[in-house]
Design goal:
Blueprint (H helix, E strand, L loop, with lengths): L1 E15 L4 H10 L3 E15 L3 E6 L5 H8 L7 E6 L8 H5 L2 E5 L11 H11 L4 H15 L14 H13 L5 E5 L7 H18 L2 E5 L3 H7 L2 E6 L2 E6 L1 H8 L2 E8 L5 H7 L7 E4 L4 E7 L4 H9 L5 E7 L3 H11 L4 H7 L25 H7 L1
Helix pairs in contact: 5-6
The chain binds adenosine-5'-triphosphate.
Adenosine-5'-triphosphate (ATP) binds next to strand 1, strand 2 and helix 2.
Length: about 375
Amino acid sequence: MLAIDVRDLRKQFQVQKNRVGVGGALKDLFKREYNDITAVKDISFQIPKGEICGYIGENGAGKSTTIKMLTGILVPTSGHLQVNGFVPYKEREKFVRGIGVVFGQRSQLWWDIGVIESFQLLRKVYRVPEAEFRNRLNELVERLDLGELLNRPVRKLSLGQRMRCELVASLLHNPSILFLDEPTIGLDIVVKTEIREFLKKINREHGTTILLTTHDLQDIEALCSRVIMLDDGRIIYDGSLDELKARWSKGRELQFQFGELPPLDVLKQLTQGLDGVTWTVDNELTATMWLPHEVNVSDALARVVGSRADIRDIKIMETNTDEIVREIYSSGSASSEAADKLSQSSSSTEQAVSETESGQATVAAASDEEKGQQS
Ligand SMILES: Nc1ncnc2c1ncn2[C@@H]1O[C@H](COP(=O)(O)OP(=O)(O)OP(=O)(O)O)[C@@H](O)[C@H]1O
């Protein structure tokens, strides 16, 4: 069963052109000119229930615009979209009861009142029965260790404390899908780890589907079985992180710790004839061998282990995901080679369509002014 079904989704914005100088400003007054910006270009993907999927891309790639369409804040310019069986910008009241949203840079809590009062207001917004609300709140408060924070005004919370409260707020109505836009931004490693563990548990125990945008690839490594990568509004990769690493990493590293480090020349001689293998000395006891995928690890390893070198430890180094992703971003979809290599969801011809925006505030992700209206 699909939680999210997106087909040929497009979002185009019209942005007013500003002409230069006083003359230009006067002309702008009488005849406005517009540029079209296509933030999301005919993307398609399906997310089954219970999956945790990472949605990544460089600044301006179109991640937030997609999330805003998926949560009903923006109306797509064209394409088909179903989330939890609903078209998000239609049937909004029923739709928002099934989703939770956390925008890392935007709060859904009321700044000047106590955390518990914000939770109570959200209970009313989502019409959660009091007994159910109490049970759920107790469970979430215990898991995220929020007991002491409940009576504090939100403005007095640290960023890490606020993010934990935001997560509770997004889950009070027991949504089956959780949208997280940069949930760990600016947090220290302890809080990040705590939040990742919490999300894993929620997913495991309640089967909550999670779509997560982040610039922190550790979030993806810790949580996501699947990653969708966007570049300039198009999907350039949709698959597992392991496959991404396997396809894009150029080689592997083996680090050797020696009782006594052999000279670099000797190490190089050991792997002579293995094309592309290089050695670097890391410190007085360790050296690292880099080998391209074409060279068999066991062949290279046998050469060193079979020598008289005094080896104390061997580590096969993990492929560095950050580097791989940085490299893919820098080649980008502009390079057709990179796009061809990675693309599973193709883009299609651009059409000129005017912008449509719902103008309605989503209850789950309302801005502060919007919340003022709701309350
Ligand atoms: N309301 C808007 N009006 C005009 N252009 C917009 C609007 N919202 C987004 N854009 C443009 O659409 C493109 C995609 O923006 P979006 O915020 O979706 O990117 P993003 O991947 O979320 O970036 P970031 O990681 O910086 O948040 C950008 O060029 C942005 O300037």
